[in-house]
Each structure stands twice: as C-alpha cells, then as structure tokens.
Amino acid sequence: MSRGRSDSGGWLRGCLVVFAVVSALVVCGPALYWRFKNAIAVRNSHNKLSCPPCLCDCPPPLSLFQLAPGLANLSVSDCGSNDPDLKEEMEKQFVDLLSEELKLQESVIEANTRHMNITLAEAKRVASQYQREADKCIAATETCEQARERAEAILIKERKVTLVWERRARQMGWEGE
User: Fold this and answer.
1) C-alpha dihedral over 22, 25, 28, 29, to 10 degrees?
2) Rounded distance, CA 61 to CA 40, Å?
3) What are phi and psi of 172, to 5 degrees?
4) pLDDT of residue 1
5) How many helices (H) and strands (E) does the chain have?
6) H/E stretch holding 24
C-alpha cells in the first residue's frame, strides 16, 4: 500500500516538473527567440557587405505646437484675466467660499463646544454620584468602627465579670477545666 503512494507521488512530481518547464518556456520563450534571431541577423549582416544608408526625403514629425497651438498654454492662472466681468465674478466666488469656510469652522467649533459641555456635565454627574457613594461608605465604616469599639468595651466588661465569678467559684472549691 505504501508502494502505491510513492508511485503516485513520483508521478505527481514528474507532472509538476513538466508543468514548470512548460511554464518557463512559455514565459521566456518569445524573448529568447527574438534574442537568438537578432544575434543570427547581426552575424549574417557582418558576413555580407553592408548596404549604404537609406536616403529618404521624409518631412520632420509634427510637434504639439503645430497640431494644436491652443494646447501649448495649459496654465489656468491667467484664464479670464482679460475679462473684467469674469474676474469680478471669480472674486465674488472666492469671497463666498471664504465666508462659507468660516461658517463651517464656526459650526464645527460650536458642535465641539456643545459636545465638550455635555461631556463635562456627565463627568460632574458621575463624580458627584461617586462622591455620594464614598460618603455612604465612610458613614458605614464609621458606624462599623463604633460598633466594634462598643463590642470591644462590652467584651472587656464581660471578661472582668467572668474573672470575678471564676474567682468566687475557685474560692468555693471549683477546680476549673
């Protein structure tokens, strides 16, 4: 049974190796093909007589300035600087934007202040609640301390009374435990 496993494992490894080789050839194959083709072409061109350079009468390529002269000036800063109405409208819009920004900042500040005041009031409420609980605990501790002191005083009195009775009992002949 273990032999069947090792056979299938070997078969699987073989398939993986074949897959890896095929993948490498698919990825690197075209680049290697062109490199070898160019190397062979260079060798063949050195062996043959080189041909004279081609003389062609081609016009120079067109530039962007020649195709669309309006696209050469892509700056937006001077857009509408010659038009007084547009300039005035842009200044109005700038002032409106600034005033809107100030209003937004004021509303954010008001919201933050409101939130801070609510948080502060909540903190004061919780602090006073904790203070009341602490006062209750202090009062209960004082009450317990007073009760302990009373119990200790009573215990001392009871011990004295017990000693008196024990002394009397010994005088009458009691031998104790």
Assistant:
1) -140
2) 33
3) -90, 0
4) 47
5) 3, 0
6) helix 2-47
Token pair for 153? 């005083």
CA-to-CA dists, residue 125 to 83, 112, 116, 128, 130, angstroms: 63, 20, 14, 5, 9
> In the predicted model, is pLDDT for residue 27 greater than 70?
yes
* Average pLDDT in the chain: 82
Neighbouring C-beta atoms of residue 38, cutoff 10 Å? 10
Cα 6 from Cα 9, distance rounded (Å): 5
- Residues 77-108: pLDDT tens digits? 556 567 777 777 777 787 888 888 999 999 99
Annotate 92-155 with three-state secondary structure: HHHHHHHHHHHHHHHHHHHHHHHHHHHHHHHHHHHHHHHHHHHHHHHHHHHHHHHHHHHHHHHH
Query: What is the band of 131 on the pLDDT scale with cuts at 50, 70, 90?
Result: very high
Structure tokens belonging to residue 48: 């043959």
166 has a pLDDT exceeding 80: yes
Cβ–Cβ under 8 Å, residues 176 and 170: yes
Signed CA dihedral, 64, 65, 70, 72: sign only: positive
83 vs 26: which has the higher pLDDT: 26
